[in-house]
Amino acid sequence: MTPAPLAERLRPRSLEDYIGQTHLVGPDGIIRRMIETGRVNSFILWGPPGVGKTTLARIMASQTDVPFYTLSAVTSGVKEVREVLTRCEADARSMFVKGRPILFIDEIHRFNKSQQDSLLGAVEKGTVTLIGATTENPSFEVIRPLLSRAQVYTLKPLETEDLDNLLERALTHDEVLKKRDFDIKSKDALFRFAGGDARKLLNIIDLIEQSTPDGETVVIDDDVVTSRLQQNPAAYDRNGEMHYDIISAFIKSIRGSDPQAAVYWLARMVAGGEDPAFIARRLVILAAEDIGLANPNALLLANATFDALNKIGWPEGRIILSECAIYLANSPKSNSAYMAIDQALGAVERTGNLPVPLHLRNAPTKLMKDLGYHEGYKYAHDFEGNYVKQQYLPSGLEGSRFWKPGDNPSEAKMQQRLDSLNNLPS
Fold first, then answer.
1. Which of 7, 195, 360, 384 falls between 20 and 30 A from 322, CA-CA?
2. What is the pLDDT of residue 218?
3. For residues 161 and 19, is the Cβ–Cβ distance under 8 A?
4. What is the DSSP string of 157-218?
């Protein structure tokens, strides 16, 4: 009988066998504490493929003494969700169940709004503890009410040390590989092609072992890894290192105002089957982060690109992405908005919750008015140029400058307007 794939044979069954994500499963990790105490709150695991999201859920299932249900967003609809929630409600009422049932939903980002809405009531009432897994940013793919009820934990690509430990475990613990002789001459290509993905690393090892005749030593070096993967292109897909390297090159080309390189890297992603929505989201972020106030229309076009993709679909959507990428590459650049919010967040972290000045506070009740709320506020539209000088920052931060205009005509014009307003008589 053909053995199961190495990645499945070597899947950890406990935290002791789990490799990586020490910030979550280490001695002080929140996931470890949940498993050890048995008190599990709803959460979403966000990270690239092959970093252990599903494995963590399975470990929780085996080590938590509560009913555990699993759904895949790829194959499940509202009907399946409601059927599972009905069983969870029955478990929650049962005197024989010690804790809340856990519902694990793999690839939760593939659920549409109505499917996610169907989960809200059960999660809010505490009928079920939700664990979701996603490779996409939950801020974009998970509805806000559900996000407010579930903590998001980020999983990282495996480090070289983690991959090295995983390789060692595969060679010493797997029943198939233990029977073969291995000669590890170099690991650079192996780890590079794995790209921080445990599953990909094990699949490559599996491929090399299976393609080496019985009785021969299994050699792993850079040449062997490269040649074997060329014979099997499917072993290297869009979710590995290439995914992150190419999107990085794409973003940096646009930031560097090179439309030729931008459209080339876009073509590489299109040809490789990259998710168009992923590209569009990155363009929206880039428009705000790298172009910003130098050309505010860039954000409008990027957002319109995202919407148009949903309406037009594929393959015509590639033309819309191309137009947007070329436009953004040719736009003037500024990161002043990005730097401003980071500077302001730094001030908040340093100074804490400074009180709002009394004259800026809302005063809907008589008591608030008696306490001086809103007193002394100057309504800007009552003054020349719709502007009047008054204190808007909390006491202690007066005169702070978080936004500094970039070196471009658009922001120079903004600064000129501010300067002219500041020169108006008080």
1. 195
2. 92
3. no
4. PPPHHHHHHHHHHHHHH-TTGGGS-EEE---HHHHHHHTT-HHHHHHHHHHHHHTSPTTS-E
Q: d(Cα 218, Cα 183) in Å, to the nearest integer?
A: 6
pLDDT in tens, 68-111: 888 888 777 778 888 888 888 887 777 666 677 888 998 888 88
How many other C-beta atoms lie within 10 A of the C-beta of residue 154? 14
Q: What is the mean pLDDT of residues 1-8?
A: 80
What ranges make up the beta strands (E) of 40-88? 43-46, 68-72
Q: Tokens 């869009």 belong to which residue?
A: 238
CA distances (Å), origin 19, targets 9, 51, 144, 174: 15, 9, 32, 15
Task: Give the model confidence (pLDDT) of 367-382 as tens digits.
Answer: 777 777 788 888 888 7
Which secondary structure element, helix H or strand E, spans residue 80, and what is its range? helix 78-93
Residue 102 CB neighbours (<10 A): 21
The 3-state DSSP class for residue 275 equals: coil
Number of Cβ within a 10 Å radius of residue 361: 15
Closest CA relative to residue 21, chosen from 52, 63, 60, 67: 52
Please list the helix, strand and coil fractions of the chain in percent, rounded to the nearest 5, in that order. 55, 5, 35
The three state secondary structure string of 82-106 is HHHHHHHHHHHHCCCCCCCCEEEEE
Element (H, E) at 363: none
**29 versus 373: which is more confidently predicted?**
29
Angle at 118 between CA 113 and CA 119, to 5 degrees: 105
Cα angle for residues 65, 72, 5 (degrees, 5° grid): 85
Query: Is-contact 225 208, C-beta < 8 A?
Result: yes
In whole angstroms, what is the distance from residue 332 CA to residue 317 CA? Answer: 25
Under 8 Å between Cβ of 56 and 43:
no
Confidence of residue 132 (pLDDT cuts 50, 70, 90): very high
CA 150 vs CA 128, 134, 139, 367: distances in Å: 12, 13, 12, 37
Please state, as a whole number, how many other Cβ atoms lie within 10 Å of the Cβ of residue 315. Answer: 9
Task: Say if residue 405's pLDDT is above 80.
Answer: yes
